[in-house]
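Protocol step 4 of 5: obtain the predicted structure for the target chain.
Materials: sequence only (see below). No template structures provided, no constraints applied. The aim of this step is simply to have a reference model before the mutagenesis design in step 5. Sequence pasted as it appears in the construct record:
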Amino acid sequence: MPDLTLFKNGAALPDYLRNFNDDFTKSIASSGSGGRTISIKGGVFRMIVGGEEVAKNEDRAMNFVVVAAAPTLGRAYYSSNYEEGAVTGPACWSADSKTPDPSVSAPQSESCATCPENIKGSGQGESRACRFSRRFAVVLEGDMSGPVYRLQLPATSLFGEPKNEKMPMYAYANFLAGHQVPISGVVTEARFDTEAAVPVLKFRAVRPLSETEVAVSRAQGQSDEAKVAVDMKYAASSAAGAAVAALPAPAVASEEAVVPVKRAAPKKPEPVAPTRSMDEIMSQWAGDDDA
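Step 4 output (structure tokens):
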């Protein structure tokens, strides 16, 4: 199965079943709250709905369309190590990587730049305990009018140099920008980097969207689902009094993110100057099936 899909045969949900008001199914479903997330925990694409894993795809790659992104990098500090099955949120977090969010009950510092958890070596090995991440809203290639998913990428999937045609997210976005192509106007392949010790995604463009698909992508990017997906919010746990993520981000909590610049937001790579037409680029990539 190339992508996470609702049906085993890969079919998309027909229009007459979308947004169906079905209290019967809701009464059977668990009371868990939260939206839809694609997690990369354990090097596997996992579909999380309402805080529960409902499907997974063990293929090394999947295709989707990025329809929205959080405006800035976020950061999060977890006071304890990640435990399998545990739903624990960060002890301190920031939506802009500058200051702790006002909702944090016990900020580690007044400023992220001077925080002791932002010092190299404060985490495991030479890493920092407080980790960068950024949230994206994506829709699956085979069901672009369907649900919007949150994809939260750690620093290891955001920063770094491109290798062949597979790039970290920022290098990939700058490559597209250099060719004046919007990321929401192409199908993006996300592929696990098999050389990395922790789950790391690399990206490349598969094909341009059709005019009809572009209209769908733009509408999805403006939807309430997309706004929720990219919003950097965490909710407090009423049971334990600890911070619990409104949507789980186990891939971030379980990875050691290598931040390239100490106590400062990393610089993005310079945009790549156009050298070929986009049709040439897409034509070459669409037929490239290398591992």
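Step 4 remarks: Helices lie at 23-28, 155-158, 169-178, 211-221, 224-230, 250-253, 278-286. Residues 32-286 form one domain.
Proceed to step 5.
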